[in-house]
Amino acid sequence: MDQYAGEAGEREAPSQGDVWGRRVRLSWLLVGTLLACGVIAFTAWRILSFTGGNPNRQAMSVFLCAAEDVHQACEGRGAPTAAEKHMIEQRIRAMPEVTDVRFRNQQESLRDSGLIGAVEGLLGPSAVAESFRVVLADYRDIPEAKRKIRALPGVAQITPDQRPEDARRHRAEGEKKRDEVTIFLCERASAFPNCDGRKATKAHKDAIDTALRTMPEASSVEFVDRDKVWAQWLENTDGDTLGMTSEDVPECFIVRVPDLTQIEAFVAKVEAMKGVAHVVSKQDVLDDWDTRQGG
């Protein structure tokens, strides 16, 4: 258990923050929403299918419960202790279909899974999960292996795994949309200051749409409605609602700004609009990725 050395022997207690606050934060940090709105289409979650197109498809990431976690399996329990993590690893290693298991701490989990930039910036330390990288002899055993591993206390979620080189490849693909800006709208009980705890109304959305389409910086404007965001959310979480409903996920606009030198000023103008919660430029996400990777 050397890899767990230095960790507290007692289980880390969940934050005492109320459920409302946790829902608000997690409704922004999970990648499902960001993927649906196209912000970081080179991240690991659900981009590479278990059933095709992934050269690493027999591997998966087993995420453990975080100190602050709303996955149904983690409700009220907090992060696993070192002893519990050792038990999880031994149980996985004992499975006949498993060929390799490697523990990943919080930073390794973020790096290896491709959760970077806008996503990592929205994660508080207590919401970052450790994980195990699990490799099977045959990818066709994944459904049964997932069923067994999900039953282990302290396991939050299982996702397709991605190698660092896969993340770099998706980053290169993201470069093709460097001019994209994603505008998230206020949701109910939103914590963003511009929202004042209220959801964007139809009048807000119409006004934002009209304003965006008349701004000379924008070459195209696409609205992504709640149904599409929610469907992507459920796909990314294997149908686990994480205590959310479709009303908890934000709708968004995706705008292309071909002149990259205008993006910063464009973002500043849009952030001031009524009904806008948060604005993310893909250019910032890509630059952040490069900085973190030392590129």
UniProtKB/TrEMBL annotation:
Transmembrane stretches, start-end: 26-48
UniProt keywords, alphabetically: Membrane, Transmembrane, Transmembrane helix
Organism domain of life: Bacteria
Residue ranges annotated for the FtsX extracellular domain, each copy included: 60-158, 180-279
Name under which the protein is recorded: FtsX extracellular domain-containing protein
Organism: Sphaerimonospora thailandensis
UniProt lineage: Bacteria, Bacillati, Actinomycetota, Actinomycetes, Streptosporangiales
